[in-house]
Specification:
about 150 residues, elongated, mainly alpha, 4 helices
Amino acid sequence: MEFFDTFYTIKILHYFVSCAFLVVAIWLLIRTVLGVFMKKEYRKLDLYLSFAFIANLYLQLIFGLILFTNMGLTSSLEFLNAGKAVAKRYWPIEHIVIMLFALFIAHLGFILSYKSQTNHDKHKKILIYYTISVILISFSLGAIYLL
């Protein structure tokens, strides 16, 4: 019984961090769009939001790997009905690979934006790399329902 309590606690934390990530991602992308198109200054809040974006992705990685290693490939079957389970049996592995790639892209964008000299370049790099990361994450989460 203790294992299932720990599993569901980690699962709830994974969902909570996902919701926090969504709020940070929307807020950050709105600020970067305004920064690129309205030539807004790159402020400390933008840096903190970028860091929170990356930190949330790392937390997601940690909680996701804990969930995956404790439950294995069968953990995703609870989300699937019996008719689609065979077609989606590799979804957990695909999800992890895509999420790692999204984390890599976002981290690369963070590094490049941090090294940029102008406000416009910082906003532009964050907008490009973080948007790609969010699209990958959305695809990874939506693929279980689309395929």
